[in-house]
Design goal:
The chain contains three helices and four strands, in the order H-E-H-E-E-H-E. The protein has 133 residues and is an alpha/beta fold. The longest helix is centred in the C-terminal third of the chain and has 17 residues.
Length: 133
């Protein structure tokens, strides 16, 4: 699926910003999107409210996905599909790298590394295959 910059809905921070941006921009998007991916789960609260106000049903008319898997995500209506990134694993790996760097000789250059921590897809009721036109 190609990336279409015009399909990105930018907003100010927070639930209210996400709500306002979706209300203003989503009805004008063409072609009509079949899914939204939000910056985080918390902003999905505002997105869900905007979709409800626009009369769009989740996931029948549009799928919604967040990122973080906050505790509230499973309690939204519908429960939110999300991408979980383990904050403990991220923090502990960061501390390990910091300690390693602090213990390294001061004349030894620090070599950048690529570290991949596997995210986990948590599928709930806010996503479904797109409807046929």
């Amino acid at each position: 699926m190609p990336f279409i910059p015009e399909m990105v809905i930018r907003c100010t921070r927070g639930i209210a910003g996400a709500h306002r941006a979706v209300l203003e921009k989503l009805p004008r998007l063409r072609p009509r999107p079949t899914a939204l991916f939000s910056y985080n789960d918390l902003w999905c609260v505002g997105v869900l409210k905007a979709l409800h106000e626009l009369g769009w049903r989740v996931p029948e008319d549009i799928s919604l996905m967040g990122c973080d898997d906050l505790e509230l995500s499973a309690f939204l209506v519908p429960p939110l599909s999300t991408v979980f990134q383990d904050p403990y694993a991220i923090g502990s790996r960061g501390v390990e790298l910091l300690v390693e760097q602090l213990r390294a000789p001061s004349d030894q250059p620090w070599a950048p590394r690529r570290i991949v921590l596997q995210p986990e897809l948590r599928v709930r009721a806010s996503t479904a295959p797109p409807r046929k036109p």
